[in-house]
């Protein structure tokens, strides 16, 4: 069976887990703390990033973009109306733009700093930067959450799914990041009816269930985290 | 004619310029200083990043990955042995992994901090972070150059081109970043014979010529910058 190196609080990892699940693939999971810079893991992916997908022939695919493009080329293309990338090149470009937005821009502005401060630093030795959360970093990231959620809400209010009429990588990458922020209680849903309705629809999919029942050591999710009607 | 928003010291922009040139496409160029956060530019690409490609129908493609995948789907596929992405999905994955390495990891570790400190900060107002280069940032980035060049040299020593037998996006993304670092005199070629031989071959291609004759305001390149035999 293929193996996925991942972390429960990595948006890129959650994205690939959702894609695999939507396509009905089973994989073995290995949780990787990338800040440990394990020698064996760096031998597989010199960039030291997750997710990494090892196929049945022990070939490694490194990074969410590489994995998702590969899965589309080898499997997605056969899925017809369940394909998670569009057929039209411009439509594909828009799905890729949003996927990059959620896995890179939102990641850099919000998800990575919050996860680092609130999840990883608790377990990291001081020599690697562990310790108490940096309140300035938290404040900046939390200011950015609001801007990003406004953009998501605008997208959700103007389209059925985020890159158009059908579920795509755009929704799964957005949902992956949003679910992590929501777990940590960082999203105030009160003023975001369109984004909330979109997330409710996404959250109700069977592919989302494993993410909603998973718990991270030392961090309890907000009470509504797993509620489909929050 | 299509338009490309770019900056001469942006590796991602140089990469797309090389791809367009290898495929024989002409475009109009608009130089964008992304740190200015121009309202008109943010209306085209809310992420505020370059390159952005505007096609003849005024449709925008944002970011090097989105543009390069689009160009492959619409044009590359017709180029046979001049195609810059492979046919085989695993080979494509390796080309994409390296392209991401040079445009994201090398960018983050080396290219972006050096360009910011040595090029952009000179022109930025103090309110946006302009001023003298930060010597600590320079020191860290310069330490990282050596590690990255070792990896590039290892790749160049073990393959004809960086992702295998043929020129691909991997070479053009690597060359885009290396040419910027070389312009700034940040690469010591003495101990890197394999990387040097690869870069000489790449630099000799007609697609590289416009990059080698271009000069950035206020920054003179090292004397060997445009030499094909350096």
Question: In words, what does this structure look like?
Answer:
2 copies of one chain form a homodimer. By secondary structure, chain A is of the alpha+beta class. Chain A has 2 domains: 3-82, Glutaredoxin; 89-208, Glutathione S-transferase Yfyf (Class Pi), Chain A, domain 2 (Up-down Bundle). In chain A, 52% of the residues lie in helices and 6% in strands. Chain A contains 8 helices and 4 strands. In chain A, helix 4 (89-123) packs antiparallel against helix 5, helix 4 (89-123) runs parallel beside helix 6 (169-183) and helix 5 (135-158) crosses helix 7 (193-203). The model of chain A has no long low-confidence stretch (mean pLDDT 96). Chains A and B meet through helix 3 and helix 4 of A and helix 3 and helix 4 of B.
Biggest interchain interface, per-side counts: A-B, 22 and 22 residues
In this structure, how is the largest beta sheet of chain A organized? 4 strands, mixed
Strands of the widest sheet of chain A, in order across it, are: 2-1-3-4
How many helical stretches of chain A? Answer: 8
SS class of chain A: alpha+beta
Shape of chain A: globular
Number of strands of chain A: 4
What do the pLDDT scores of chain A average to?
96
What's the assembly state of these chains?
homodimer
The radius of gyration over CA of chain A amounts to 17 Å
Helix content of chain A: 40-55%
In CATH, the architecture of the largest domain in chain A is Up-down Bundle
Q: Which CATH class of the largest domain in chain A? A: Mainly Alpha
- Give the domain tally of chain A: 2
Indicate the low-confidence ranges of chain A by residue numbers.
Answer: none
Which fold name corresponds to the CATH topology of the largest domain in chain A? Glutathione S-transferase Yfyf (Class Pi), Chain A, domain 2
Give the end-to-end Cα distance of chain A, rounded to a whole number of Å.
Answer: 36 Å
Strand content of chain A: 5-15%
| H-E order of chain A | EHEHEEHHHHHH
